[in-house]
User: Fold this.
Amino acid sequence: MELEKALLRKVGEAIARFQMIREGDRVAVGVSGGKDSVTLLQALLLLARKSPVKFTVCAFTVEQGKFLSPIQPVGEWLRSRGIDWTYFQDNPSLRLLEDEPEHGCDMCSRFRRRAVYEIARGLGANVIAFGHTADDFCEAFLRNALFTGRLSALPAVTHSRKKEFRLIRPLVYVNEEMTRRFAESLGVPVIPCGCSQKTGTVRRSLRDFFTDLEKDYPHLKETILSAMGNIQPNRLLDPRFHSEEDEEDPQSGTMFPIVTES
Ligand code: SF4
Assistant:
């Protein structure tokens, strides 16, 4: 119960801060077979019951041929709890897998995104919720800074083209330790995706990097999330965000931060 309360507090905080959900919304949740999306779905269903803002929730899964075993046990588990679940076999994705088995994430995501919009349209949803967690936000932030030369992570709220759908990530403040424990407490079957087993990827390296550092600094990701919500643009190198009014921070004492050797 404590875990559920903590989860709902964090999801509720994200929804309120970024105005993710509004009166009358129909929210479609993509269930991927993993712990994160099921946690998200359950959190939204619980909040929909309690919230003074009235909204409905439905769930779907896109079959792209990547699950290591059939996803149906998850669907049966959801339906046995009265949850509205749609299974959608995406034939273009399955053909892609046959034609280009080594295709990258960019192409796979593009195919998935198109399928997701098609399903959401069919379900009458105007909001699509994704199960990206605090861990995903931190990894995206570091990946972009280290490999793409950009300071950015993932949008907590954004829109599809022409604003047909609001796209939301309500697990932004929820870490994967919490989704793992919560999914376990639900007893929902977890069906891994073949890609989650890949080694030698940037994602895997970043995960290992965090795991290593978190042994000594367990709150590292919370600090990174705070940093993402507390930007000091005049201390970065993008002149578009500098202004004539900028003043030197008296605490810094110098134009350049002094790095002391320990
Ligand atoms: S990790 Fe696998 S399933 Fe995910 S986007 Fe990449 S190719 Fe697709």
